[in-house]
Amino acid sequence: MREEANSEQPRTTAKLARPAPGAAPGSARQPSPDALNETPSAPDRGNVGQDVQADIWVKCPGCKEIAFRKEVERNLNVCLKCGYHLRLTVEQRLAITVDRGSWRELFADLAVGNPLSFVDSRPYSERLETARRASGRNDAIVTGIAKIDRRVTALAVMDFNFMGGSMGIVVGEKLARLIDHARARRLPVVVFSSSGGARMQEGALSLMQMAKVSAALGRLRDARIPYLSVLCDPTTGGVAASFASLGDLNIAEPGAIIGFAGRRVIEQTTNQQLPDGFQTAEFLLRHGMLDAIVPRHRMRATLSQLLGILAPRRAHKSVD
Description:
single chain
């Protein structure tokens, strides 16, 4: 792993609009469509007309309804007809969660090469470079300090668009550093998980991150500082089996897929038919694996309320 100079230098997101606490979908305080639509530009495929037309519409994976993309984005990427929660980018998640202008990124320059010299159809280093160019970041997570409804919080958001949000050395190291940073300053920790699990290209090194982050959370709990885990679609594999399930409160978005192995793998291994809705947030809530399911337009207000109840004493008021 390498760490370039000024790895803790603050970086600020754009000043984006956000919904008011508890606001209903589509209310006047929702982020603007331009603010939400910050995904990396698609490469030119030689047919601009088709690209523009594809960007105008979005098809809901739940009800198959076709809607204007901007209307869905105004509703926080939630289907206007059936309420299906589409995935968010890191920028979109920050825009609707943190106070405007309060985000300060930490450990942004942590990066890793190809520690195992892993090669499949392409060298792992090439896959990493492609993902970095597409996302503009070094790995599948961003960590930093922000305010949620004026409450200073250590925050991490996983990026599923970066190699499926897989957890490697950098993800584990950034999380462990953030947790230790929060413990030293007695700040609550909130993590938004969205991952396919441990990164296979880093082998056992990626599996070690499960223990490292869990140990850091153990130290945070000994210090009686709260940790809220928000499980987004999908949260699976080693991430679901470690820090994503270790929150003082485990919260999920509606319809999120949460589990260790995939449904098909389990059915083929056990030779049994799994029930409908298996591994959804609703299924896990009924079976005691989650504390709550919170719709996206209520997530910010809910986190603020929980942080107010659980906030540790002598928490720093600055974002430094």
